[in-house]
Amino acid sequence: MTAAEQSFAGQLERAAGVEWRPAGEPAFVCAIRAAGREAFLRAKLPTLKNEDWKYTSLAGLSAVVFEPAPRARVTTAELPPAPRLVFVNGRLDPDASDLAGLGAGVRMGSLAVALRDRPAAVEPFLGMLAGASEAFAALNAGLFEDGALVELADGAQPSPTLHLVFLSAAATPVATHPRNLIVAGKGSRATIVEHYRGEGSYLVNAVTELALSEGAQVEHDRVQEDAPQAFHVGLLQIRQGAASRLTGQSIALGAQLARVEARALLAAEEATCDLNGLYVGGGRQVLDHFVHVDHASPRCTSREVFKGILDGASRGVFAGRVRVREGAQKTDAGQVSSTLLLSEDATVDTKPQLEILADDVKCSHGGAVGQLREDQLFYLRSRGLSAALARALLTWAFASEMVQRVGPEELRARVRRAVTARLPDGELLREVA
Amino acid sequence: MRETERTMLSIQGLHAKVAEKEILHGLDLEVRAGELHAIMGPNGSGKSTLAGVLAGRDTYRVTAGRVTLDGEDLLALTPEKRAAKGVFLAFQYPVEIPGVANMYFLRTALNSLRKARGEEPLDAIDFLGLAHEKMKLVKMDPSFANRGVNEGFSGGEKKRNEIVQMAVLEPRLAILDEIDSGLDIDALRVVADGVNALRSPTRAMIVVTHYQRLLDYIRPDHVHVMVNGRIVTSGGPELALELEKKGYGWIEKEPPARVAAEARL
User: Fold this and answer.
1) In the prediction, which pLDDT does B246 show?
2) Consecutive 10-residue runs of chain A (433 residues): their mean pLDDT?
């Protein structure tokens, strides 16, 4: 076993004894944890031999001994507006959280508290979506302490954006395993943001389960700005009911290695799923997206648009898997992956995979890998822009389409600043509109 | 000496290559402030190469010769420094840049030039006032202000956009590369009116065109005919009319003496 596997195995064994855990977790949670523990100990961390991990090496992560994260408080004043839940090292910080303006028909709070006080509300959903077969999801099931539970009643349409903030802070390597559950009732509508930030050396291994009932419409924005030394693994597991609509944005900027998986099950007719992503890498960063859309019902639509900007010796991975099950006629599925390489040493691997078992479907995939265009650079320079500013502006132009897809205005502005700050000579773009 | 009498642009013995192919074979040209020079010639004669070399496009390699602007070596400067010195190229094929708003781009360009000249930047409000005034010059719809640079513009709209940029950036030397290509007669008239409105005693223009038609609307002071990478004959506006009648075959067969050019030297 690697150092990381040994440290996780030890924590899983200790957790099985439950001495350090609040006594009396419901039986279904104990079962989820046991299944997670067994699956992780059996599978261990994936290697390049695993088809779904063939482009992303975990050698760096495997060499680290991760301790459970200590309790910590928020030190940064920079938090999004209410309503917000703030988690620090995987645990809710009630002082930093603020549920003002939440509105009728919406509940938002600690999953751990809900598991203690009203487990029946959670049982139908938790772990039903995110199976524990994959190593990181299994690890999360075995070790999660807390996370957000967001419940939208039928027809609830909260106007404010619901913010979930996950902060990590550690002097020595620690691992946290936030576990979130979002349940959107029939015809409900909401915008939910997950924001990851931190300082120091850590692994954040987050799982979010998202269940959309009939006609629900959810925008889910996931912004990852973890610390440069951090490892980030995230799973977004989605199940959509009839005529529901999910729009997901994954903005991946931070961490030395980040892997985000989105798995959507289109379980009933006329569901629509848009999963988009923007990743901006530099140095030796590895930014990996794995998207799996499962068309299990007729007349569903899915779109994936992913864009990457890679500088230095960074690496990007985009794997988009679309499965159209037998009988899922009139499926309309499309994916596009485009990458801008700013240096000779930056690389990207893209892997579209289509598995189609129905005959009346429309499926497409496309994309391009390229550099900045010489004719555009010259056009800008001929008008007086410096070469650096011209490059920065064209790089921003490539990214801006994805930033525009972020719905909440205040978040979009923040993402715009965060993206431009990571672009070469991005400080020249202060005034970018 | 009055401003209008001084040579602004001087090109001597200019040779340039694209890839390994030599396109310009020793080209000479003198342009003074206030003058408008038309450069005509058949396809492949090197007209657009000349325009690109003057603006500093690095796909062209200058192998011999000298180009000065106000006595300064132009070829040693980057494209952006040339722009700061007042060189402007209106592109034959203006480039589309999705994701960069047209007016944001133009304000960035203007403020880059102002910065290079040690001037204060123009704020967004002042700039928009200026830009809208200049857009009227070529009857450009205000909705084009916030679209991506040339994104989805028709051929005519792209050419108008080049003239708007020229009007805002106020170059000393404007090179208009086939500004007439792809324009119907109404659009041609609008673009030509815009160009004429920008003529000034302190500004020189080089108008590159394949057709005499443009010169019905933009009256040149001098007409040069380029064949095979050199200027083979020069004259007044009447030379353009003669070309229109006789075609470029006439020049290629029996180039007339460079009367006008000689007389000026």
Assistant:
1) 85
2) 95 73 77 92 93 94 94 81 96 95 95 94 84 85 96 96 95 95 98 96 97 98 97 97 98 98 97 98 97 97 98 97 96 97 97 93 94 97 97 96 94 95 90 54
DSSP state of A71: P
3-state secondary structure string across A156-186: CCCCCCEEEEEEEEEEEEEEECCEEEEEECC
Look at A400 and B99 and tell me if their CB atoms are within 8 Å: yes
The closest CB to that of A384, out of B83, B91, B99, belongs to B83
Q: Is B265 a residue whose pLDDT tops 50? A: no
pTM of the predicted model, to two decimals? 0.92
What does the block give as tokens for B54? Answer: 């003057």
Cβ–Cβ below 8 Å for A393 and B105: yes
Helix (H, G, I), strand (E, B) or coil at A259: strand
A378 contacts B112? CB cut-off 8 A: no
Give the residue carrying structure tokens 């046991």. A34
CA of A278 vs chain B CAs: smallest distance (Å): 15
Are A383 and B104 within 8 A, CB to CB? no
Size of interface A-B (CB pairs under 8 A): 79
What is the rounded radius of gyration, in angstroms, for the C-alpha atoms of chain B? 18
Give the up-direction half-sphere exposure of residue A250: CA atoms within 13 A in the CB hemisphere.
Answer: 30
A374 and B59: CB-CB below 8 Å?
yes
Structural domain for B128, as ranges: 3-264
CATH number for the domain that contains residue B109: 3.40.50.300
Q: Which residue of A has its CA nearest to B146?
A: A433
- Tell me the C-alpha distance between B22 and B229, whole Å: 8
Identify residue B147 by its one-letter amino acid code. R
Question: Which residue in B96, B97, B145, B154 sits closest to A400, CA to CA?
Answer: B97
Return the SS3 of A243.
coil
Q: What percent of chain B has pLDDT over 70?
A: 93
Residues in chain B with CB shorter than 8 Å from the CB of A386 are 80, 112
Among B141, B175, B134, B146, residue whose Cα is nearest residue B157: B141
Q: Which pair of tokens denotes residue B185?
A: 């007669």
Say how far apart CA A264 and CA A246 lie, in whole Å: 9
Interface test with A, best of B54, B88, B97, B146 (most A CBs within 10 A): B97
Inter-chain CB proximity B165 and A383 less than 8 Å: yes
**Are residues A365 and A332 in contact, defined by beta-carbon separation less than 8 angstroms?**
no
Q: Chain B contact for A397, CB < 8 A?
A: yes
Q: Which residues in chain A have Cβ-Cβ distances shorter than 8 Å to B56?
A: 381-382
